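Late entry, written up from scratch paper. The run itself happened at the end of the previous shift, but nothing got recorded in the book at the time, so transcribing now.
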Amino acid sequence: MSFPQDHIRNFAIIAHIDHGKSTLADRIMEMTSTVSDRESTAQQLDDLAVEKAHGVTVKSKAVRNYYIDDQHDEYQYNLIDTPGHVDFNYEVSRSLSATDGVLLVVDATKGVQAQTVANFRLAKEAGLTIIPIINKIDNQMADIQKTTEQLLELEPTFQTDQILHISAKSGLGVDQVLLAIRDQIPAPAGDIQAPLTALVFDSKFDPYKGVIAQVRIMEGQLSAQTKQVFMASQVASTNKEVGVFTPEPQALQTLRAGDVGYLVTGVKNPDSIKIGDTVTNEIMPAKQPLPGYQEVEPMVYAGLYPKDTDYKEFKTAIEKLALNDAAFHYEPEQSEALGMGFRGGFLGIFHLQIIRERLMTEFGINVLTTMPNSTFKITLKNQNEPVYVENPIQFPDWSKISLVEEPYVHAKITLPNEMLNDIMRLAESRRGILEDLDTLGSMVVATYLMPISEIAYDFFNELKSVSHGFATLSTESADYNYSDLVKLEIAIDYANIDALTIITHRLKAERIAQNMVTKLRDLVPRKLQAMPVQAIVEGRVIARENIPPLRKVAAKGTKVSKKQQQLRRSGQAKVDIELPQAVFDAILDLG
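Output as recorded:
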């Protein structure tokens, strides 16, 4: 069924975590008969196990709903769900670009919080119509008056009588939300007769169909079995099918300007289709792509190794997972201590956690993860061209280095005013340089220039802890800047353990080294003889502890041979150390 453009509405729901975004989406789908009572489940749009476990959307979804108003006119409501974590900030911006308006949901028991402000700012920068909604009004702890005042501070153009009061859980007031979508969110613009331009705002891989892209048609028409070109990657293919999610896939003959749906591209290489790319017709192409596209580069790198699984089985699982997550990059890697594995590139530490959990839940594979790090730009002596290093093991010897630079980001931290001092102390402890300080309603937005390495590990969690969950973080890439970095190596029983090598700032090296050897002393499984643990920087041991033997007096026959003693002294001892995941988890807390 084809709808006229003035009867189409494309919108998203944005909110702080646990403010009722997924619940409201469920009610909208139920009240438009998109899903029946029998089919209805909580968090209908979150189909990954990790999404339900963390209460955070990881992959965008787009569902077509049909709304019949009191005049018996039928409207097409395209609900585009958006990711809800800082690691997926680019995907959020692309998803919002596919909409014409947003529902801004605020919990009446908690008021406006940091993620509310961050999402509001993204929607406003995109020029979208924003409908303010106060949720959970039937809760005994609800403070509707205070929440209303906070919303008016956030955006003075909001009118008190325009703020909707609902309970998404019970469905109270949701009918007014459906009317507001019809009346306030503008119908999509776009010439159906113009050359095709369509925005790719998400994609997934099907082993039989190839890459399936979720698209918003901006101009023109996209028909089934026609040739299209992806303008950024210059990949051409004949699509196999076009259609919409209702929420199950429903094939159609044509998608027109204003529609949101899916495109079975026929492309078998998942790396070829990028989020933010523009689709056009090969025969009559558009003159220029849609603005805003950028290559998504990994911000964090870490080693992934199978714990109790055959390498071939692990490799198959990694390959399948990468097909459905275009932001995850990997390449083979071998460690003397851990054996064969992969070097993975991730959007952030939460993305790394999601990959680990998906390997466990979807493939039953336990993974050992090494210390995450970023990319380093190194200028060597007597060499003009810099080299880029992603793996700490490949970091050159200090005597050959002329200059080390690391990538920085502009980190925007949105927080309540009374928490500013604590957040500033945290940011400065991570080598942050204050660039800007602004107010937005009852919140403060502090912008810092910070190294990726300082926010990659546990900065987001520590930010949540310091602010009691009220602060949020968004990042924009900056350039490489000089840093006084050193390579910190760990030797156990005089054998270098490559998987424990990290790159850190010189001023933090001694503290981190001492903490590392202390933790390793307690966590590395003991042997019959005592084993020294040494932290080495630039050829010098800066911290040392001894792992005690299993028993105080070695049993007969366990005396270390002269050959082994010589190997120890020469630093060529053979690695025979078991490293449990607890070792790497402990190291993550050292930053």
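Residues 197-281 form a domain with the Elongation Factor Tu (Ef-tu); domain 3 fold (CATH 2.40.30.10).
(Scratch paper discarded after transcription.)
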